[in-house]
């Protein structure tokens, strides 16, 4: 019987398999950031071990870095210690690091692809749940815990129990104005935040094939929000065109050979998935969340749901609690929801295409009075490219703030935070209680919706302007 894409990549990395034991997988790329690595390096130190493959390990500073005044020391002592510890660890163990202010610095899931380090058919891990982003290249990429980070640092391998496979097929073409972010929010609303649990999702179908690499990364990024172990998309011409010429991509004869292998990385026609979901792209519209998990979303044209209409008692209770936290009343049209802040950025939507979409909407327009808008590039390279294209000018002229690269307001681990009760439209991936700051209220949106919302001050799509 044929194999799925996920099975092909998985099988190619098993270095030891024994009855009743987890498989031992070889890891091709290990990404490291300041939050989940300190104990792992301490563990190595205590055991007197080295990093086995520093050449396959790369670190960046992203979660704790401020996005203004990079030349000043980090004011928050916890953040400063995290960043300083990463610097010491990388220097002690010979790991490449892109520190704050460096040209190559940025969010861990933005810099890997950008450097051409993330390639089809690889296994990629990081102590970070959104490692699923890299699956957009046909890599098997997933988040690991700190003790696993230590294992990979020491051995370049990882014990794994093989996940099941799931196909999410999106048939047809995405309608005008519907983006990758709308698509993934709609998928999660359909299958639920546990819908992918224990599975590697493969996204397939015409709508997926037509996405750019940036769009594919947005989709795979949020696989974890559907509970999946990873998300993958089979590599194709779009993938190869993105990778060709990047600093770490193969070159010359190696490139041709790589492309030949990468082309074989697709699910065989006679392969079977453990679970399958089919979605019709034609029915999709811009999508926003109203609640406190990424599955609590609806088309922008709808209204805040009434928990009383939900049959499942657990879901009803969740919805009641979410509305209370979010300060929303059932029946309110989503388009009537006023926001205080708009955040564009994160590993979900902090890439160049996202910034182009935002600038496209903001051009010749102003951010509404009383609304603050932060636009935070996912990496210093994205920032530079955006500036070369003049996007920063358009963004600043609209009244939005143009920042340095980092995780920023995606999570409250740096100075960019919501205050209690403050409401945001955010292009990030999590709307949990307090995610963007204690008491902060988050609506997950696409970059285009974020920009339109900034202009009107209420949840809106560009077509509303
Ligand atoms: C800090 C890190 C461990 C965390 C993650 O694993 O995802 C963060 O990146 C997040 O998005 O919540
Ligand atoms: S941008 Fe957000 S989701 Fe991505 S790694 Fe940083 S904190 Fe996690």
TrEMBL record:
It catalyses: (2R,3S)-3-isopropylmalate = (2S)-2-isopropylmalate. Binds 1 [4Fe-4S] cluster per subunit. Catalyzes the isomerization between 2-isopropylmalate and 3-isopropylmalate, via the formation of 2-isopropylmaleate. Belongs to the aconitase/IPM isomerase family. LeuC type 1 subfamily. Its EC number is 4.2.1.33. [4Fe-4S] cluster binds at residues 347, 407, 410. Heterodimer of LeuC and LeuD. This is 3-isopropylmalate dehydratase large subunit. InterPro entries: 3-IsopropMal_deHydase_lsu, Acnase/IPM_dHydase_lsu_aba_1/3, Acoase/IPM_deHydtase_lsu_aba, Aconitase_4Fe-4S_BS, Aconitase_4Fe-4S_dom, IPM_dehydratase_rel_enz, IPMI_cat. Its cofactor is [4Fe-4S] cluster. CDD domains: IPMI (cd01583).
């Amino acid at each position: 019987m044929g194999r799925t894409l996920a099975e092909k990549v998985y099988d190619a990395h098993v270095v030891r398999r024994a009855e009743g034991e987890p498989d031992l997988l070889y890891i091709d790329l290990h990404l490291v950031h300041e939050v989940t690595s300190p104990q792992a390096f301490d563990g190595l130190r205590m055991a007197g071990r080295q990093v086995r493959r520093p050449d396959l390990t790369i670190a960046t500073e992203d979660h704790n870095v401020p996005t203004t005044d990079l030349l000043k020391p980090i004011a928050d002592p916890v953040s400063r210690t995290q960043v300083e510890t990463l610097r010491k660890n990388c220097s002690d163990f010979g790991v490449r690091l892109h520190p704050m202010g460096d040209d190559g610095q940025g969010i861990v899931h933005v810099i890997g692809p950008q450097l051409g380090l993330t390639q089809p058919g690889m296994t990629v891990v990081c102590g970070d749940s959104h490692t699923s982003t890299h699956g957009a290249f046909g890599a098997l990429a997933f988040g690991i815990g700190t003790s696993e980070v230590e294992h990979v640092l020491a051995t370049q391998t990882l014990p794994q129990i093989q996940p099941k496979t799931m196909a999410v097929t999106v048939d047809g073409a995405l309608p005008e104005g519907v983006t990758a972010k709308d698509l993934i929010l709609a998928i999660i609303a359909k299958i639920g935040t546990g819908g992918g649990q224990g599975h590697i999702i493969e996204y397939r179908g015409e709508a997926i094939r037509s996405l750019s690499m940036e769009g594919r990364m947005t989709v795979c990024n949020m696989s974890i929000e559907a509970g999946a172990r990873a998300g993958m998309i089979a590599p194709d011409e779009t993938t190869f065109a993105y990778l060709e010429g990047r600093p770490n991509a193969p070159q010359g004869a190696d490139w041709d050979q790589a492309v030949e292998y990468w082309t074989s990385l697709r699910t065989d026609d006679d392969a079977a998935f453990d679970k399958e979901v089919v979605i019709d792209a034609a029915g999709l519209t811009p999508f926003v969340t109203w609640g406190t998990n990424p599955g609590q979303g609806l088309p922008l044209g709808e209204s805040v749901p009434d928990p009383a209409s939900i049959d499942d008692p657990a879901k009803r209770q969740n919805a009641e609690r979410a509305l209370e936290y979010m300060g929303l009343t059932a029946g309110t049209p989503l388009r009537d929801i006023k926001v205080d802040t708009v955040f564009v950025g994160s590993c979900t939507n902090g890439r160049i295409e996202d910034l182009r979409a935002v600038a496209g909407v903001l051009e010749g327009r102003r951010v509404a009075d009383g609304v603050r808008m932060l636009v935070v590039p996912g990496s210093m390279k994205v920032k530079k490219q955006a500036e070369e294209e003049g996007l920063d000018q358009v963004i600043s002229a609209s009244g939005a703030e143009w920042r340095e690269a980092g995780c920023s307001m995606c999570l409250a681990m740096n100075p960019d935070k919501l205050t209690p009760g403050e409401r945001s439209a955010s292009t990030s991936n999590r709307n949990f209680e307090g995610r963007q700051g204690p008491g902060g209220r988050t609506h997950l949106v696409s970059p285009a919706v974020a920009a339109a919302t900034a202009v009107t001050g209420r949840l809106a799509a560009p077509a509303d302007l």
